[in-house]
TrEMBL record:
Protein's name according to its UniProt entry: O-antigen/teichoic acid export membrane protein
Pfam families referenced in this protein's UniProt entry, alphabetically: Polysacc_synt
Top-level taxon in the UniProt lineage: Bacteria
Chain ranges passing through the membrane: 16-38, 44-65, 86-105, 125-146, 158-177, 183-203, 224-245, 257-275, 295-319, 339-359, 366-387, 393-410, 422-441, 447-469
Topology of this chain in the membrane: Multi-pass membrane protein
Entry-linked InterPro entries: Poly_Biosynth_Transport, Polysacc_synth
Subcellular location: Cell membrane
Length: 490
């Protein structure tokens, strides 16, 4: 299969995976003006602590076996073997979730006193969250299995339905019934329960009884996953633990403003998340083709070009987004949003950088660099947060995140060389960062004048980069035109 066709396949899958994110984020953005008029920044602080704590528990429960399952799934063409791989993950994941859910439920009072001493209903919120843990197993596994089968449309459909149901119940409980903060967690519980039958439908040809759990298979998958566990925990520490440091070192208002900054920056995650979902199945599926390395190299260039431009746009217009979506109480989150937008870009680079190590099943460096990155993050948080508050937390995230692709590109090249053009890519990244810095020197008193000047600045940067990457732009142009041509023929 040609380089053109391979890159077209990657972009096509990324576009499909991104569709659910676009629609979901559009609905979320639509709800933000409502929520910011219902909840105060202090309320957002409570939401942030609970949300990021839940994500930490979810990461622990997955135990990085999703990565093992993907690798073992593509190691064989036997459906029976693949079914054993999937069921080994399912049943470990389910029973672990039952155990941790019970532990969380009965320790809710302690956790509330430790992290949310000023929130009277904090323990009840934690118990509602704990009930969701074993129920989320089925949708999580179903989405991943559909990705393994390269059923991008079905995977996205399930994710989209999940998001729409959750948002729908949030509107009902929070906006219409006015249940306050508790409405968020009732919505999460009810939507998770409702989606179990749909998840089972997609898994019906794969799921078996617990007897399908293969202990010998699990040992190999577990050994492969172990280095990814500190990597996964490191991901949480680097990207999401800032709210806990702010909660300890500052106040809940700073936590809430930081969370709003995360919400604006998460729009940039539309592109990076879509790419990250499409990348592993795509990369492994073409691994044994003769032009695989060339495809991988061009993929980095295309990613940095398209996603970098998108992230820069979001970063530059963070203030305008806050003015449209929130009240003046939240405008202080502007700089946090601008900084964290580039963290989304670095996350995608991290996925590409680990490819060589993953192909050769040399995953120990992945865990080590995430551990080191986490330690650097902790140190930077203690240094920067007391000095510059929430902006310090955002800078700590980006500096720590940058270590991961920088190290893993170097290490992966030793295992599996890919002809990346690092110099050109680095220059492009610096141009994007320079544009964001320059945008803060532009006058911001007039909303429309600010928008016009920023668009001119972005146009200048786009033209400069276009001169550097004519070949890659031609490739993307051909991909787009071939897409439209195919659609018109159909």
């Amino acid at each position: 299969m040609s380089l053109f066709v391979q890159i077209k396949k990657l972009l096509s899958d990324s576009a499909i995976y991104g569709l659910s994110g676009v629609l979901t984020r559009f609905i979320s953005v639509f709800l933000t003006p409502i929520y910011t008029r219902i909840y105060t920044p202090d309320d957002y602080g409570v939401i942030s602590i609970l949300t990021n704590g839940y994500i930490l528990v979810s990461i622990i429960l997955v135990f990085s076996l999703d990565a093992s399952t993907a690798r073992w799934y593509f190691d064989t063409d036997s459906r029976e073997r693949r079914k054993k791989v999937i069921n080994t993950w399912i049943w470990f994941y389910f029973f672990s979730s039952l155990f941790f859910g019970a532990l969380l439920f009965f320790s809710a009072d302690f956790l509330q006193q430790r992290f949310l001493p000023n929130e009277e209903e904090g323990a009840w919120f934690i118990q509602l969250i704990s009930l969701c843990l074993p129920m989320t197993v089925w949708t999580t596994v179903a989405v991943n299995v559909l990705r393994f089968e390269l059923e991008a449309k079905k995977s996205v459909a399930l994710s989209l339905i999940q998001s729409l149901v959750l948002i729908g119940f949030n509107v009902l409980f929070v906006v219409i019934l006015r249940w306050g903060l508790s409405g968020i967690y009732y919505a999460q519980l009810v939507s998770t329960l409702i989606l179990i039958p749909l998840a089972y439908y997609f898994l019906r040809n794969w799921i078996g009884s617990p007897s399908w759990f293969d202990s010998s298979l699990f040992r190999g998958m577990f050994k492969f996953a172990v280095p990814f566990i500190p990597a996964s925990l490191g991901y949480w520490v680097v990207n999401l633990s800032g709210v806990f440091f702010l909660n300890e070192l500052m106040d809940q208002r700073e936590v809430g403003l930081y969370q709003i900054g995360i919400s604006i920056a998460s729009v940039a995650g539309l592109a990076t998340t879509a790419f990250q979902q499409a990348w592993p199945p795509f990369a492994f599926s073409i691994l044994h083709q003769p032009n695989a390395k060339q495809v991988f190299a061009v993929s980095l260039q295309v990613y940095l070009l398209l996603v970098g431009m998108f992230c820069t746009f979001i970063s530059v217009f963070s203030l305008e987004a806050l003015k449209i979506l929130t009240t003046p109480d939240y405008y202080e989150a502007t700089l946090v949003a601008s900084i964290l937008t580039f963290n989304a870009l670095l996350l995608g680079l991290g996925s590409i950088s680990t490819l060589g190590a993953t192909i050769e099943k040399k995953t120990t460096p992945v865990g080590l660099i995430h551990l080191l990155s986490s330690l650097v993050l902790v140190g930077l948080n203690f240094l920067l947060i007391p000095w510059i508050g929430k902006e310090g937390a955002a800078l700590a995230v980006c500096f720590s995140q940058l270590l991961i692709p920088a190290y893993m590109f170097w290490k992966s090249q030793q295992y599996y060389f890919i002809p990346f053009d690092f110099l050109k890519n680095s220059v492009i990244l610096l141009i994007f960062i320079g544009v964001v810095f320059a945008s803060y020197w532009l006058p911001s008193e007039s909303f429309f004048l600010s928008v016009i000047l920023k668009l001119i600045l972005l146009s200048f940067a786009t033209g400069l980069i276009s001169l550097m990457i004519k070949k890659e732009l031609l490739l993307v142009k051909n991909l787009v035109f071939s897409r439209f041509k195919a659609s018109s023929i159909e």
